[in-house]
Amino acid sequence: MTKYVIIVAGGAGKRMQSDLPKQFLLLNGIPVLMRTMVPFFNFDNQIQIILVLPEEHMDYWKNLCVEFNFQLDHKIVAGGETRFRSVKNGLTEITDTGSLVAVHDGVRPLVSQSLIQTCFETAELMGNAVPAMEISESLRILTPEGNQLLNRSEVKLIQTPQIFRAEQILKAYRQDYKETITDDASVVENMGEKIHIVPGNRENIKITTLHDMVIASALLQNMRSV
Amino acid sequence: MTKYVIIVAGGAGKRMQSDLPKQFLLLNGIPVLMRTMVPFFNFDNQIQIILVLPEEHMDYWKNLCVEFNFQLDHKIVAGGETRFRSVKNGLTEITDTGSLVAVHDGVRPLVSQSLIQTCFETAELMGNAVPAMEISESLRILTPEGNQLLNRSEVKLIQTPQIFRAEQILKAYRQDYKETITDDASVVENMGEKIHIVPGNRENIKITTLHDMVIASALLQNMRSV
Asked: What does the pLDDT look like over A69-107, one tens digit per residue?
């Protein structure tokens, strides 16, 4: 079965306190985005990688690939104004509708190969799969009156890759964009599909701030030393 | 106004893949629990520190204090079977009912002095204060049918210190223990009080696994180098 992964790197990195979008920052010497793509290739060297990048960053990325001699084959697609639009643009490259399609954040370089495998296997069986983590801190939910305790044992943090049968995600992205949609699972769910969660991997953090870069760097070193 | 802080270090560290309870592990050379207590003393050297420890760890702790020449004045109280019971035991040391009482996890050594100050000031004004963080990942909530999207913009991760007017927390802890209670704010809320949230500090992570030790160590080094 054909496998695709759409790597979404559309963000302009406004939260990074840095002019360079976060996906291009060096994580222990190698750009985040390159680190993100490698585990998918290592999982299956036939996987088709579709990288969604803002148009204005394409030249920067291509130069970076030359500079780092990054040979991993991938298609580049222009991003849109929202994440929804970016994924939708990436989906135009899906030519095999009997395939499986992963969507993964460009700023999650520490995703494990075994998580990628679990998600693909579950999606093939169940239609879709998204990785979920337990929450170890108390939660509160905002209410019109203020806020109140939310039972943390019932809530999961959702990571990527989120993987779907192609027909499911292609159909879902024909819907109109809604503000409440924050990930691909919610787009697919919005169409009436059930979402299947699998255990995530702890190191698979999303790098949204420089603080996260410090954490990712330490985790990477630790993973190597174990 | 008298200030107390109850440091809860009751956990036996079953999640640490280590025989040593997590609060005693060395974080960049110094036991976690010592690092946790220092910012409170630095904030106000008159603060009364009440350390709640499992009875079987008291000797270990006292020896550690000698070994590290740890001079910070504190009372030691025996913990109970649950966190609720441990805090309740700590509260028996509150003699000034016109005071402010902070409750802080023994395994949050990276709490900032400014967060401690904000929480005390807000609690004095509003009756209580708990630190809350935004969530940058998607959330799902378990339902009888499976799971569904939960709007992350309405949910906050809750940290400690949680600070209360003494009368409020003393009264709250006269209630019976309930399973749904995961922190002190929920005990106080359960009595009908509104909870006031203030912005938390990102580094103020809860160390529950060895993975968290790696992160805490990196954050600590980064805080020093900034």
From this structure: 999 999 999 999 889 999 999 999 999 999 999 999 999
CB half-sphere exposure, A5, CA atoms < 13 A:
27
- Beta strands A138-143 and B100-105 are unpaired
pTM above 0.80, yes or no: yes
B87-122 confidence digits (pLDDT tens): 999 999 999 999 999 999 999 999 999 999 999 999
Residues of A with CB below 8 A from B196's CB? 146
Q: Do B151 and A208 touch (CB under 8 A)?
A: no
Does the beta-carbon distance from B182 to A142 stay under 8 Å?
Answer: no
Contact B142 A155 (CB under 8 A): yes
B14 and A CB contact within 8 Å: no
Query: What chain B residue is nearest to A158 in terms of C-alpha separation?
Result: B138
Beta-bridge partners for A193: none
| Partners of residue B100 on adjacent β-strands | B3, B165
Backbone angles phi, psi at B164, to 5 degrees: -140, 150
Residues of B within 8 A of A150 (CB-CB) are: 155
A198 and chain B in contact, CB less than 8 A: no
Q: Which residues of A81-104 are buried (b: 16+ CB within 10 A; e: fewer)?
A: eebbbbbbbbbebbeeeebbbbbb
- Using the Cβ of A112 and the Cβ atoms of chain B, whether some distance falls under 8 Å is answered with no
Looking at this protein, which amino acid is placed at residue A69?
Answer: N
Query: Which residues 72-111 of A are in CB contact (within 8 Å) with B?
Result: none
CA atoms of B85 and B54, how far apart (whole Å): 11
Euclidean distance between CA atoms B106 and A78, whole angstroms: 48
**Per DSSP, what are the bridge partners of residue A78?**
A53
How many residues in total does chain A contain?
226
